[in-house]
């Protein structure tokens, strides 16, 4: 449906390529939240990211399970959204609305590994030197979801 067959050879419509015109040249599905194709960590092939750095995965090469960054990077925003404290308390509504947040009663109610989306379990210290627990995951639509223990 992406071209016409002439003498047993596909002539592809614009934005399609491949022997069967089955490869889309549209890079929109590869666009990461930072505006880069595959987050600058991969190539967009037929509308799908091929991550060149094996640490990174996900639809736009934004998830890194082994990086220390995921928990530390979101710690201040989770703290201000869930508990209204921390370094970003005063700028929370401007800086920290990039994820959906769900409060849960205890650690047993946090999402567990085995779900389809890459998941990071986090344990961080707050401004009062207390531990708080949360999970961070990104679904196939690129939406970040955070679950925090109240």
TrEMBL record:
Membrane spanning stretches: none
Keyword Nucleotide-binding attached: no
Gene Ontology terms: cellular component: cell surface; focal adhesion; integrin complex; synapse
SMART domains: Integrin_B_tail (SM01242)
InterPro entries reported for this sequence: EGF_extracell, Integrin_bsu, Integrin_bsu_tail, Integrin_bsu_tail_dom_sf, Integrin_I-EGF_CS
UniProt-listed GO biological process terms: cell adhesion mediated by integrin; cell migration; cell-cell adhesion; integrin-mediated signaling pathway
Keywords of this entry: Disulfide bond, EGF-like domain, Glycoprotein, Membrane, Repeat, Signal, Transmembrane, Transmembrane helix
Boundaries of every Integrin beta subunit tail domain copy: 71-150
Protein's recorded name: ITB1 protein
Protein encoded by which gene: Itgb1_1
